[in-house]
Amino acid sequence: MRNENLKILGMTCAACAKAAERAVGKLDGVEKVSVNYATEKMNVDFDAEKVSIEQIKAAVSKAGYEAEEEKETKEVSMPVSGMTCAACAKAIEKAVGKLQGVESVAVNFATEKVSVKYNPKDVRLSEIKQTIIKAGYTPLEIENKNRVDEDKERKEKEIKTLWIKFVISAIFTVPLVYIAMGPMVPWLGWKLPAWLEPMQFPLLYGLVELALTIPVIIAGYRFYTVGFKAIIRRSPNMDSLIAMGTAAAVIYSIYSIYRISIYDFMYVDDLYFETAGVIITLILLGKYLEAVSKGRTSEAIKKLMGLAPKTAIVIQDDKEIEIPIEEVEVGDIILVKPGEKIPVDGEVIEGHTTIDESMLTGESIPVDKKVGDKVIGASINKHGSIKFRATKVGSDTALAQIIKLVEDAQGSKAPIAQMADIVSGYFVPIVFVIATLSAAIWYFTGQDAVFALTIFIAVLVIACPCALGLATPTAIMVGTGKGAEYGVLIKGGEALETTHKVQTIVFDKTGTITEGRPEVTDIVHTDVIDRNRLLQIAASAEKGSEHPLGEAIVRGAEKENLEMLKLDRFLAIPGHGIEVEIEGQIILLGNRKLMVERNIELAQLEEESDRLASEGKTPMYMAIDSQLAGIIAVADIVKESSAKAIRKLHEMGIEVAMITGDNKKTAQAIAKQVGIDRVLAEVLPGDKANEVKKLQEEGKKVAMVGDGINDAPALAQADIGIAIGSGTDVAMESADIVLMRSDLMDVPTAIQLSKSTLRNIKQNLFWAFAYNVAGIPLAAGLLYAFGGPKLNPVFAAAAMSLSSVSVLTNALRLKNFKPYK
Amino acid sequence: MKRKKRLLLAAILGATLLFTACQSTDVVGKVAVTSFEEMLNAASDNVSFDEEKGTWTLESPAGDEFKWSKDFSATEADSIIEFDAAPYISAGLDVTKLPENYSYDPSTGRLSLNFALGDEKFSYSGEAKPLDSFKKIVEAKRSLIGYHEALDHYGIALGDGNMFEWAKDMTKNDKDIVFVLNPQPFIDAGVNPEQVEGWVFAKVEMMENGKKFEVDKLLKPFDLK
């Protein structure tokens, strides 16, 4: 089964998305297809042996839209020196064209430029350059243009075109409305020139209106080309409604002109050009505002994309060379000076600095970086100069991964969107039926044809499924984008929707609630030794240990600047501790079991040991020459934010559980410290998923928060898996939400964001449905039937445009989202 | 293909503008003349020329007259509406209080409403006929001719809200001609408009400057058939 993303062009409403889905879904071999109207993307799962991507594109095209493959294609225009004739150009074309991943290559001998379209996944730019060099020519500095820029240009062009169309339309519609309706509003005092007096020059009056309407129709011609084609294909969309409504008004008005020309002057009252003009103008305005707002919903992606610097300074042969970021290779040594951005991901090999990673993690405090530390591309080097080795470049960098994750999330559909999609799919045909029926009922119950016509137009025009189609995806786009800003990466619409339903959150203990880095917390000693000597001997004994507890003791001694003593003998006793000889003394360091086995009398410190254990600390006994010397307690420190985050979750009515392999006593102690409701202790790593499943069997929606590889199955089992960003790639891969920081306050933030987004979606859906539920009966003349007013099609058009704009404006309100502090 | 479409639309727009600029769009002016001719034919026995005033006269079955000038440059009153004053006097008319262009002849007992419409010289090739003079008026004073949608009539606006109207299609109309008077000068001269015998005091829907409105009028319609 193959999965592809296609860019769908030419959609104007949710019904278009549904039509494209239907067209592709019918193909044999297509397993699953989903079109997101807001992002204009189609995601399709298909059996490549039964159906080709070309057939899928053809099906989309047949449905009236255009499909483009979402390839990560890069286009490079590279000056090349050394060409002396057209044959040289041919030689380069041939050599580069042979490379796998090169889609097209064109060499212009006159401009001495090679234009290459290639897939960076299959071929590196350096390989292309190398091939050119091998062919005997010299590639120079490149100019590149990528998909993102093209997409941006296309959207900007679309916005500009819509604006121009709207302006043209408005320029002609204003005088049209003045002529047609101005004099009807006495208090305006508008007058017509004598030669336009409808009762004296009705034909001229009608023709002038027609002349003013034609440019408006030209400005809105797309509604007709797309709308009527859709009707012919039996999949009418929003454009079909506009096209039918306005065409009915224009055709009837032209008929009226004809009647005037044969001296039926009464038809001067039956000119409805201004209705068509105003409808087209308002809808063009609505479409323009929609395009602008849609652009704003994806600002988060644009912001992320704008973070990456364009160039990097690479050290080659001890020289600093500035090269485009696309040319940076894994292994390159990169120099970053203070104030500059880190170009790609890597590992510091020289220097010390602080780096602002807030744009990626949301963490406002700059992070210290020294040799061996990892740096992330797009973060800002604050103080010192550093050199680092590039470890990830191009689409492998953390930034590129985040962008992909956010893009995928924005393109995904939430379950709540399915309802809107289903409604949108049936909406337009139903509206046609309602419009026709309403007009027919009015006509056959005694109203004239003109009355029936206005009803028909008003119903068609007011009932636009636009708002329905935009309600969910725009909120998800803004919601996921906003999450990314705060370092909360939500992987899809479904995750965003489910998160707000979570009733129980299970936290992994180590590395999630705690720092995952044990430290010495207590030192208790007997009369045989003093505190510092005890720590010094213990640290010397553990020096070189890879056990986390041993490392903690060594770190503790280092913090106090204690000098390490020389070991004369070392013996590791697995599961118990160690035995060493220092300065002629035999030192035992380990757990109670070790002491008991060696017959060390523990009574003196038994009480202290119990107390420490009850506080969740791990007591390590030390004996010198068979005499108890003291206890060093080591504990994993609870993160500063843990208790606050758990308190916040309680306020949100969420039960909080902790899962750990630790013994019950230790686990209970940590749980008490941070306010955990339920402790799942002594759970083997492989059983974590089972524990989550048990909670789910209680009928609860469960979220799991973890960071380790061993958490991955539990993250996958949970309704929502939340991975801490400092954790492993496997954990992040299995999770639905990734927190870029290790701050647990981001968990309530994710839930709060989910709730806000869902509330926003519901508001959007409410407004979208309310417009149509209230608007259609009104347009159909329900109020008029009971002595009330009839809805003018012009106001129907205004209401329709307003519905889309109001839904988009409401979605954009999510931009004001602020996380808990 | 796109270019062709644009050219086609531009051609339609151009043609429309050209068409609008063309005189042939004056369908009201054109049909006003033909329908006036039909009306004159229907009342041919009651159409005459008033040598003294230099006007053509159309007399209604009740003796009310609509007069129109043969040559604006030669007439003082280019159009006249003349009728029996008795019903007005009975309804309270004080003839001394009428406006200047309203004249009462005690000898005949008739009231004349005289309207100056212009000074244009009308020239004819051959002997002038009543319709020819009307055509000259339409040519010279086209803005005075209008269509009255509510009654499916054409009308000539004589000034001060007074009109003479005739049916666009006499076969479909029972009011072939209508004398339409502004009641206000009469009211100001003491007339109770509802008591003028033979005349109907009613609200009439009119349209001016693209705006529909209702006004009080004194009407006297006739079926000439």
TrEMBL record, chain A:
Q: Which GO terms describe its molecular function?
A: ATP binding; ATP hydrolysis activity; copper ion binding; P-type divalent copper transporter activity; P-type monovalent copper transporter activity
Entry EC no(s): 7.2.2.8
- Where located? Cell membrane
Report the principal subcellular site: membrane
Could you tell me which PROSITE patterns the record lists for this protein? ATPASE_E1_E2, HMA_1, HMA_2
Which EC class is this protein assigned? translocase
Tell me which residues make up the HMA domain: 2-68, 74-140
Q: What is this protein called?
A: Copper-exporting P-type ATPase
The record's family statement is: Belongs to the cation transport ATPase (P-type) (TC 3.A.3) family. Type IB subfamily.
Keyword Chloroplast in the entry? The reply is: no
State the UniProt keywords alphabetically.
ATP-binding, Cell membrane, Copper, Copper transport, Ion transport, Magnesium, Membrane, Metal-binding, Nucleotide-binding, Repeat, Translocase, Transmembrane, Transmembrane helix, Transport
One GO BP annotation of this record: copper ion homeostasis
Transmembrane ranges?
Answer: 162-181, 201-221, 241-259, 271-289, 423-444, 450-472, 765-787, 793-812
Question: Does the record carry Transmembrane as a key word?
Answer: yes
Q: In this entry, which stretches build a coiled coil?
A: none
Topology within the bilayer: Multi-pass membrane protein
One GO term describing the cellular component:
plasma membrane
Pfam families per record = E1-E2_ATPase, HMA, Hydrolase
Show the catalytic activity: Cu(+)(in) + ATP + H2O = Cu(+)(out) + ADP + phosphate + H(+)
Reading the lineage from the top rank, the first entry is Bacteria
TrEMBL record, chain B:
> In terms of domain of life, where is this protein from?
Bacteria
**Signal peptide residues on this chain, from the entry's feature table:** 1-20
Could you tell me what this protein is called?
Answer: Lipoprotein
**What keywords are annotated for this sequence in UniProt?**
Signal
